[in-house]
Amino acid sequence: MVSSSHEAMHRIFQEDPGVFARTFRRLDLPFPDPVAVSLMPTDLTEIQPTERRVDTLLRIDTASGESHLLIVEAQGKKNSRKPSSWAYYVAHLREKYGIPPVLLVTCQDKGTAEWAAGPFTIGPAYWPALTLRPLVLGPHNVPVITDPSAAARDIPLATLSAITHAKDPNAPAILKALAVALKTIDEETARIFAELTELGLGKALAAETWRHLMAVDLSFFRSETSQRLRAEGRAEGRAEDILLFLEARGIDVSDSARDRITTCTDLNTLRTWVTRAATADAAEDLFVEAGD
């Protein structure tokens, strides 16, 4: 039976796939930031009746034009049968999509994380046919984030920190920082990451601390001040996304276009511009209305 913490450990990457590149950049591993991410089917079942399903599968496209598949698997304990399943996932997806796959395993305890890192060999010891080397995120390498301002700068990473360090003595401080950070974003997104955190903590003692923090702190969302701050924050974030997207695609942005983007406060307009930024040949194309 799949546990709630298992679900949360891989769903974070569905909510914000960029957390993968940001986390590994902090670990000095050479994964580029994505400019486009696509959620892929997780069902790998063939005609035979055996069902094979990964936790999360993403296609990552980078500014350099290179792409890779990101297979995210949450692992709660050692399982001697898992490496052969992982090897199947990697080989099957490489054959199916023709894109290099990366296997990422998330863990909540150091022992499981050390085991999951492998390497695992498939075949006889004297002539292994395949060597599997998963990337692993766990309490041994995910940063401990206890500074609310740092948590606010990257809430998905702060959520991953809270979950992977659920059994750490610093867990209450990590959770407090995340609770404060959630006040800086819109209510819907905050509730998603609050839910992911509670699911990820599972039956750990820190779960009770988190429930108490949420009972107290999320009342902030009912205030008029919080609604105004969230609207301003959403607009600022959308504008930054547009500029980063255009920059990643190598499109120059004039001062006038930059000013128009950064001063816009209408979220619907900004959403439209984000969509247009994916295909625009020039920054000014964002502002052209249908029929112009």
Overall description:
The protein is of the alpha/beta class and about 290 residues long. It has twelve helices and seven strands. A hairpin with a 4-residue loop joins strand 2 and strand 3. Helix 6 packs parallel to helix 8 and helix 10 runs antiparallel to helix 11.
So what's the overall shape? flat
Largest sheet: 5 strands, mixed
Mean pLDDT: 80
Strand pairing plus helix content: what structural class?
A: alpha/beta
Order of strands in the sheet with the most strands? 1-2-3-4-7
Low-confidence stretches are 47-51, 220-226
Sketch the topology as an H/E string, one letter per element.
Answer: HHEEEHEHEEEHHHHHHHH
Strand residue percentage: 5-15%
Distance between the termini: 56 Å
Count the E strands. Answer: 7
| Rg from Cα | 21 Å
How many H/I helices? Answer: 12
Share of helical residues: 40-55%
